């Protein structure tokens, strides 16, 4: 699963390159929007992994998570002001990282982390009927109320704790039924995902949504974090990787830094991609070239984040030590 963590992070970084770099430089290129769909599975896969293995709450983990969040947020905002000439008042965002819209994933994952002891206790003892009921209720709230009706602003797009709870419980459910999943051929799962990805990408590239509303709906049904297409895509990819028996020290080493990659992948970091893409618009219209360039830039960025994260290890250990003292006194 560590390999899936890395690939999920790669998808997130590529997606950020599209929306913060390439798309602003050439907003009429439907190619960029179309390629966002298969890359959008990164976040759901992360939460599925957490549910599959279970979040083991500890003050050590909480202090490390919070310490990394504030450290990176303050440093990134400082770089934004000094290097990218962002407004000085944006420095305050570094101190208000929890709850900030730009860091919605961090905030929502923090809520999930804090609630995990209670969630784990409940799903540990439920029977199949209760599990099905819980999944169906959360699916109804997220997919119907949030995705279809969109009358509840807090549920729109699936960037909320209820959707993360659903994905977490789906991950736990996949772990519960892993023996049955093992009976499915891995390549059939991957092939089905690839067929869906190719279809949605092709549709998004060839027929703009404003020309045919139905096509726009297809794109939307596979893009939102609370869309049925997104659930299907993420689960297919997750099931494929759950069947792989793969061990690598290098993969484990890199996977330990994915949280740093997530925190450092902010919008203004990709400004250089936008500025460069303006001059390469004639070249960046070929899907093969676009994918190759985005993957190359994303891999380079991730390698840089790994180096930064490993250099910061002594700092992260300091945060963990603060939590260890509380773990010795309190058990949740």
How would you describe this structure to a colleague?
- The protein is mostly helical and 332 residues long.
- Helix content is 74%, strand content 0%.
- It is built from 18 helices and no strands.
- The chain has helices at 2-25, 30-34, 36-39, 42-53, 59-82, 91-95, 104-125, 128-149, 161-176, 178-181, 186-206, 213-221, 228-242, 249-255, 258-264, 271-279, 287-311, 313-327.
- The longest helix is centred in the C-terminal third of the chain and has 25 residues, at 287-311.
- The radius of gyration is 20 Å and the shape is globular.
Write the layout of secondary structure elements.
Elements: H1 2-25, H2 30-34, H3 36-39, H4 42-53, H5 59-82, H6 91-95, H7 104-125, H8 128-149, H9 161-176, H10 178-181, H11 186-206, H12 213-221, H13 228-242, H14 249-255, H15 258-264, H16 271-279, H17 287-311, H18 313-327
Helix pairs in contact: 1-4, 1-14, 1-16, 1-17, 4-9, 4-13, 5-18, 7-9, 8-9, 11-13, 15-17
Oligomer: single chain
Largest sheet: none
Helix count equals 18
Strand elements, count: 0
User: Which of globular, elongated, flat, extended, rod-shaped describes the shape?
Assistant: globular
Order of helices and strands: HHHHHHHHHHHHHHHHHH
Give the amount of beta strand, in percent. Answer: under 5%
Low-confidence stretches: none
- Compute the CA-based radius of gyration: 20 Å
Please state the average pLDDT score. 85
In whole angstroms, the N-to-C terminal distance is 27 Å
Structural class: mainly alpha
Helix content: over 70%
């Amino acid at each position: 699963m560590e390999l899936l963590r890395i690939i999920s992070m790669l998808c997130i970084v590529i997606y950020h390159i599209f929306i913060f770099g390439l798309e602003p430089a050439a907003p009429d290129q439907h190619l960029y929007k179309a390629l966002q769909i298969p890359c959008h599975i990164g976040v759901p896969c992360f939460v599925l992994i957490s549910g599959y293995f279970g979040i083991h709450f500890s003050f050590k983990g909480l202090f490390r998570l919070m310490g990394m969040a504030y450290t990176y947020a303050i440093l990134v905002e400082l770089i934004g002001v000094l290097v990218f000439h962002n407004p000085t008042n944006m420095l305050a965002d570094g101190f208000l990282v929890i709850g900030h819209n730009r860091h919605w994933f961090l905030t929502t994952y923090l809520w999930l982390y804090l609630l995990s002891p209670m969630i784990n206790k409940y799903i540990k003892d439920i029977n199949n009927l209760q599990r099905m009921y819980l999944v169906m209720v959360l699916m109804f709230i997220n997919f119907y109320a949030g995705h279809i009706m969109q009358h509840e602003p807090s549920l729109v797009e699936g960037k909320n704790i209820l959707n993360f709870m659903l994905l977490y419980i789906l991950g736990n459910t996949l772990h519960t039924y892993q023996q049955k999943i093992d009976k499915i051929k891995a390549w059939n799962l991957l092939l089905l995902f690839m067929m869906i990805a190719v279809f949605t990408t092709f549709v998004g590239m060839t027929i703009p949504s404003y020309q045919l509303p139905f096509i726009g709906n297809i794109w939307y049904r596979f893009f939102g974090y609370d869309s049925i297409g997104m659930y299907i895509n993420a689960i297919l990819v997750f099931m494929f990787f759950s069947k792989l028996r793969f061990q690598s020290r290098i993969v484990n080493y890199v996977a330990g830094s994915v949280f740093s990659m997530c925190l450092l992948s902010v919008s203004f970091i990709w400004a250089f991609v936008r500025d460069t893409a303006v001059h390469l618009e004639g070249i960046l219209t070929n899907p093969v070239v676009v994918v190759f360039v985005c993957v190359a830039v994303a891999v380079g960025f991730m390698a840089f984040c790994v180096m930064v994260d490993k250099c910061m290890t002594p700092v992260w250990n300091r945060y963990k030590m603060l939590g260890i003292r509380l773990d010795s006194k309190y058990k949740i």
